[in-house]
Each structure stands twice: as structure tokens, then as C-alpha cells.
Design goal:
- The chain is an alpha/beta fold.
- Helices cover 34% and strands 24% of the residues.
- A six-stranded parallel beta sheet has the order 2-1-3-4-5-11, sandwiched between helices.
- Helix 4 runs parallel beside helix 5.
- The protein is elongated and about 60 Å long.
């Protein structure tokens, strides 16, 4: 399948590398200086994959909708604009903070654990993530997805702290912390801690291939659909 690529960063390069091994073709690239426009030549692309920047997402999706091209939206840090994005006429996209299928299953495990420990007041919970020093957002979009999922199922947590604490953290606050160092592709850890024991769940990526593979699979899934979908829809549609 012919696919257009938005963005030229690490993820974009990994998508391009993997696409050729899976029989897909990156037929056109749009990046800074040659942004996607409503009158752009998409070179026969059936789907666009976007791993650009948060401040470019609305413009990219608006142009894609004008071209009637579905989008796999994998850019992080833009979800505060989701309500605005939903008003874009004729938009078709599937979006996620992380297209790794392993991360998706990890999220389901975290939700299940959160329900199990949600009724146990003696258990505290944390989210921590590690990424390479060049990552643009902190905490990661995946960490925030994990945190919000925990808030939904753990009544003892009603708010998030994502900045460095300046004093004691209230017991009802879920601390989401980050480390930026070296070349770490991405590690996310959720821990449930009490005076009796600690339970730790961790997902560690060995590279960016899983993210690229999921995005390419999502591109095939969205190609003949219309509407706005999430990773939940995509994963359910594969079953």
C-alpha cells in the first residue's frame, strides 16, 4: 500500500525502514519546509502516518481531511486539542499516544491491576517512565494514558502530579515522574506499594520497531474506514 509520511524524526525513519520490509511504500514525505497542504500532491497515497510535532497536528489533520486521506496520528503531546480536532469536517483518523500493540496490552494489565488494588486503601501507586534525552514531551503521552486509566479505577487517587514535587505529595495525588537520559527507546513502570509488599508492572521497549509496526498495521486498518477512531477500536477490529 502507498503511504504518505508526515514528519522526519526518529519514528518517521523507522516507519519508512519497516514499511519496505512489509511490502508497503512510503510514496511521499511532508516535513518542515514542505508541509502538507489542502492542495498538496499526495502521490497516490491511500493513508498518511503522522509522527510530526504537537503544534503541527491540527494543520496536518485539516489538510488531510481536505484531501480525503485517512491519518494514523501517532504524534504525542497534542491531545489537549482533541475537541478542536473533532470539529474538522470530513476527518478520518485513528489516534493513540503509542501504537505499540505490546504497550496496548500492558495498559490492559495496568487497568486490571488498578481495579484489584483500587479498593485497598493501604496501597499507593506511581507511574514512572524513562525515555531518550531528545524526547519532546515529559511525561510521555503513554505515561499520561496509564495515569488517567488508574484514576478511573482507583478511588483513592483523584488528581495527578506531573511536575517535580516541592513538598509532601497529598495521598490522593498520583505521582507521574520521568527520566530523560541517553538513547532509551521507552520504558514505563507502574508500581503498587504498601507496608506489606510491592507489585511492579513494567514495559520496556527494545527499539522503535514495535511502534512503527503498529502504525503500519493501523494504516491498513483505517484505509477503507471513515470517522475518528482510537487504539481501542483498532485493536478490537483486529480480533
Amino acid at each position: 500500500m502507498k503511504i504518505g509520511l508526515l514528519g522526519s524524526g526518529r519514528m518517521g525513519h523507522e516507519v519508512e525502514r519497516l514499511a519496505s520490509t512489509l511490502g508497503d511504500e512510503i510514496c511521499v514525505r511532508f516535513e518542515q519546509g514542505s508541509e502538507l497542504r489542502a492542495n498538496s500532491d499526495a502521490a497516490g497515497a491511500r493513508v498518511l502516518i503522522d509522527f510530526s510535532s504537537a503544534d503541527a497536528v491540527v494543520a496536518n489533520l485539516t489538510a488531510a481531511a481536505a484531501l480525503s486521506l485517512p491519518v494514523v496520528e501517532g504524534t504525542t503531546g497534542w491531545l489537549a486539542q482533541l475537541e478542536r480536532v473533532r470539529t474538522i469536517p470530513n476527518l478520518t483518523m485513528v489516534y493513540s499516544s503509542n501504537f505499540s500493540m505490546g504497550v496496548y496490552r500492558f495498559l490492559q494489565l495496568v487497568k486490571t491491576a488498578g481495579r484489584l488494588y483500587g479498593g485497598e486503601a493501604q496501597y499507593d501507586v506511581y507511574v514512572h517512565e524513562w525515555h531518550h534525552s531528545g524526547k519532546a514531551d515529559s511525561p510521555s503521552g503513554t505515561a499520561m494514558t496509564l495515569a488517567h486509566a488508574l484514576l478511573e479505577v482507583m478511588p483513592q487517587k483523584t488528581g495527578l502530579l506531573t511536575a517535580a514535587p516541592s513538598g509532601k505529595i497529598p495521598s490522593h495525588t498520583l505521582h507521574v515522574s520521568s527520566t530523560r537520559v541517553g538513547r532509551v527507546p521507552g520504558t514505563h513502570e507502574v508500581g503498587f506499594d504498601s507496608s506489606f509488599d510491592q507489585i511492579t508492572l513494567r514495559h520496556q521497549a527494545f527499539g522503535r520497531e514495535a511502534f512503527a509496526y503498529g502504525a503500519l498495521q493501523a494504516a491498513h486498518w483505517i484505509a477503507d474506514r471513515r470517522g475518528i477512531y482510537t487504539m481501542d477500536d483498532f485493536m478490537a477490529g483486529r480480533c
